[in-house]
């Protein structure tokens, strides 16, 4: 089922058998879960002795086989080549910071492999044990490092600042070996970016990051307007960036090779000025393939929603395939409507119009749509290659969606996968929004549409197909795939007959896919 793109593992072989890694973890878990027997009383000892004597022959095989199982698994794992075992350890370290320490304490052979695998120790998660992380840097030898600083402990402002500065001093001498840097701050303290990044700024070759591939800087509560030029403007291998709450100098030598960008504007500028900044950034990072944009809400007045004509350039993104426009306020930020007319997406495949779901205030609560959605229709550039559209929460308006669908090109056959998420989706909403788009939609996905019933959905399918599907024979509906995820009012069991008409039906409940072979059961099976 198509949903917003997620981050994938870095440099992990697609076909590597994860079952081997599971076997290593299962072996260690079994060894740690040895039963702890309590001292037996005199009466209990006699009773157990009689039971053992009576059933020793029958239970002899059963008692010895489980005891030998961990040994057999260990023997099979020991027979693996050292290179394979080392690769398994590296994969396990991606999910658990302490996994290298765990495997190095199992046996001498594993300890030898762990200590002679530098990539196993590359992940440095800075916390209170700075001495331990310093030792792990030494064990990583010349291997590139993944640096993570995400303090969660509540401190005073001065203590927070000093703690961040102390953590960064541990890893700054190895900046030329950084493969990734992730800094996330929770809570507020002044000048935290200065404490974390002052050692990364300047005009010296010693602070360049030639191995850096992934950069994550997130501090939503930042109020420091200082602009930072990182790594002397030199990180030629940087491909992924997640930026929120910081003002960066968008140097071409630093960001021109990005393929993934998750950018939340810092909010220190607004309207046309903010749009101009983002347009320059996109012009520098024109090789992007995935982009997520968000502008913080600053209470802009409705009078500021006029489209700007001050920009003369068009920014082309010839490789962009996925675009997500995220809104965290009650309306569309004006900077977004200023920016969109000056963008070109010739190969854009997927567009996600998303926002935060509102807080539930009762069963009768209705999610409001954004008041100025009509400005988006005027600002949107042509989307000749669009094949997936995801519309959620505040973007859900039947008139906006109906007009948007009519603007999309029609290649002659159904080609669009439409995903709708939110409680605004009802029978009346679908009838109004999809009235002229039946020939364009190939797949329909419904996510948390709590007010939509199965009967209403079938009526919408009948309208889109132009016939009564229940009584038709040898007729196939225009929608060939139907996805239903966590729709509380929809009885998915009554839709099973759609599969006989060539409709691929998939259902999720509580985050798990339902096995439709048990559609008649009272309880869902997964």
Q: What secondary-structure arrangement, pairings included, does this model have?
A:
Blueprint: H1 18-32, H2 42-78, H3 82-93, H4 99-103, H5 108-115, E1 123-126, H6 130-139, E2 145-149, H7 157-171, E3 178-184, H8 192-197, E4 214-218, E5 227-228, E6 240-244, E7 247-248, H9 252-255, E8 260-264, H10 271-284, E9 290-295, E10 315-316, E11 322-327, H11 334-339, E12 343-344, E13 350-355, H12 373-379, E14 388-392, H13 398-407, E15 416-421, H14 427-433, E16 441-447, H15 454-465, E17 481-485, E18 504-509, E19 512-513
Parallel strand pairs: 1-2, 2-3, 3-4, 4-6, 5-7, 6-8, 8-9, 9-11, 10-12, 11-13, 13-14, 14-15, 15-16, 16-17, 17-18
Antiparallel strand pairs: 18-19
Helix pairs in contact: 1-2, 1-3, 13-14
Domain F-box: 74-124
Pfam family, one: F-box-like
Region (Disordered): 31-69
Sum up the structure in keywords.
globular; 15 helices; alpha/beta; disordered C terminus; 15-stranded mixed β-sheet; Leucine-rich repeat, LRR (right-handed beta-alpha superhelix); 526 residues; two-stranded parallel ribbon
How is this structure best described in words?
The strands form three sheets. The protein has a 15-stranded mixed β-sheet. A two-stranded parallel ribbon has the order 5-7. It has a two-stranded parallel ribbon with strand order 10-12. β3, α8 (192-197) and β4 form a beta-alpha-beta unit. The protein contains 15 helices and 19 strands. The protein has helices at residues 18-32, 42-78, 82-93, 99-103, 108-115, 130-139, 157-171, 192-197, 252-255, 271-284, 334-339, 373-379, 398-407, 427-433, 454-465, and strands at residues 123-126, 145-149, 178-184, 214-218, 227-228, 240-244, 247-248, 260-264, 290-295, 315-316, 322-327, 343-344, 350-355, 388-392, 416-421, 441-447, 481-485, 504-509, 512-513. It is globular. InterPro entries: F-box-like_dom_sf, F-box_dom, LRR_dom_sf. Residues 31-69 are annotated as: Disordered.
